[in-house]
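Example 3.
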Amino acid sequence: MQTTSSPGNESRHKIELALGERINALISATRALSERSAAHFHPRLQPAAFHIARWLYAFGPARPSEVAEAVGMDRSSTSTLIGKMRSLGLLDSSPAPDDRRSIIVRLSAEGRQRVAATLEERGKEFYTRTQDWSTDDLARLVELLGRLTAERSSETES
Amino acid sequence: MQTTSSPGNESRHKIELALGERINALISATRALSERSAAHFHPRLQPAAFHIARWLYAFGPARPSEVAEAVGMDRSSTSTLIGKMRSLGLLDSSPAPDDRRSIIVRLSAEGRQRVAATLEERGKEFYTRTQDWSTDDLARLVELLGRLTAERSSETES
DNA sequence: TGATATGGTGGAGATATGCAAACCACCTCA
DNA sequence: TGAGGTGGTTTGCATATCTCCACCATATCA
């Protein structure tokens, strides 16, 4: 399955570049939406809390430092935000099984519901783009994106 | 092609929801990358300049207010950043043909090159995820993402 | 055991960005 | 023509976030 050094490599590389550009276009196109969602996520929380909550929503429970690394925020801000979200009941924490210094944070039912509501509400405009897509294409895109994001850090650790 | 009111609608809606979740997972997964790219884009520019440059890279020349709206920043910050990028030679502006109050900004060759370099450099880690994909799947994903982001504001205006 | 490293938390100061308001040039409409 | 609106720019201010830095509890390694 490794095609890294076979001929025909060049067009493969072109496709990979094209994928990079498309993903970047998607991220650019959704950035305004992200920021506005973050701003409206919770009236008593800073915008960045939404990025944390959304990551937990997408990838499940994790340690604070893992979250900070994954969303590109520093640990102290992440820690503060996590504290606030916990006191608002949006997420719970439990001790990490393998390291007593550490904890595992996870969205509470309310937190999950609130993220879902924010995504749903703010995403409406964007998803009108797929109105005239065939269900097949839609399903294929879902499947491919799923594969793209499935990996979850299992190899970024040492 | 409009299936909006036919039966079988419910599974359609499920797929649309799933797409939303996948796109959000992708955005969450790439957020750290975005922020770090933004921070390293140019030593004399604030991070947000990268978001502007990247949008222009993806969607082409536009008016400042259009850019601000699209990337979810306010106009004053956008204006300032555009000024700085212009003085650094990363982008050019020309008068808008239809409105003499307005201008059109576009990436210069150097700006385009610098965005591409940033994307390339910082994106390496991420794109290892597709190493064992078939070229077919890769191409399909490129095509579908292209359709998703193709529209470019032609209907968000009045 | 001791020495050093790491995860989480908190604070102090610097910076980036948002928000509000003012201004000018220009557009639109009456 | 005049009145009010809009695009771009600039300024002042509020706030969010980052960058260190220190601290504690625990882990790891000698």
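The domain at 13-146 of chain A is CATH 1.10.10.10 (Arc Repressor Mutant, subunit A). Chain A touches chain B through 64 residues (CB under 8 Å).
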